[in-house]
């Protein structure tokens, strides 16, 4: 479709420079994956926040795709990204439900999706917290040296 596509090179400085040179008035949305599902390359929350600032300086939205990384898959939190600059966060697959959330609304966080999916996600989150699954993922990852 002719959209600019930037690959995360592992160098945060190079990635930021590529984003700065690609985001212009014609770009309405910067969409990224915090963890690239094919390579396992991971962007830090700091880098994602800096990309969000560049997007916002150019009046573009930042959308973070957590389709493959939700439900504590990284062992660092329920989501791979802390969400501080994201306008929208989409989720699916790993969360077993699909939808999005946004902190852009006047009433705080808005969770979007079917009513059933939103309810189911709440129950999944309760069970993850009750069984301390995120902490368990972190311990196993550390033991494996990941």
SSE layout:
Blueprint: H1 12-22, E1 29-32, H2 45-57, E2 61-65, E3 88-91, E4 99-105, E5 108-112, H3 115-130, H4 133-144
Parallel strand pairs: 1-2, 2-3
Antiparallel strand pairs: 3-4, 4-5
Helix pairs in contact: 1-2
In short:
The protein has 146 residues and is α/β, with parallel strands linked by helices. The protein has four helices and five strands; from the N terminus they run αβαββββαα. Helix 1 packs parallel to helix 2.
Descriptive terms for the model:
146 residues, alpha/beta, Aspartate Aminotransferase, domain 2, globular
Can you characterise this structure?
It is a single chain. This protein has one domain: Aspartate Aminotransferase, domain 2, CATH 3.40.640. The chain is of the alpha/beta class and 146 residues long. It contains 4 helices and 5 strands; from the N terminus they run αβαββββαα. It has a 5-stranded mixed β-sheet with strand order 1-2-3-4-5. It has helices spanning 12-22, 45-57, 115-130, 133-144, and strands spanning 29-32, 61-65, 88-91, 99-105, 108-112.
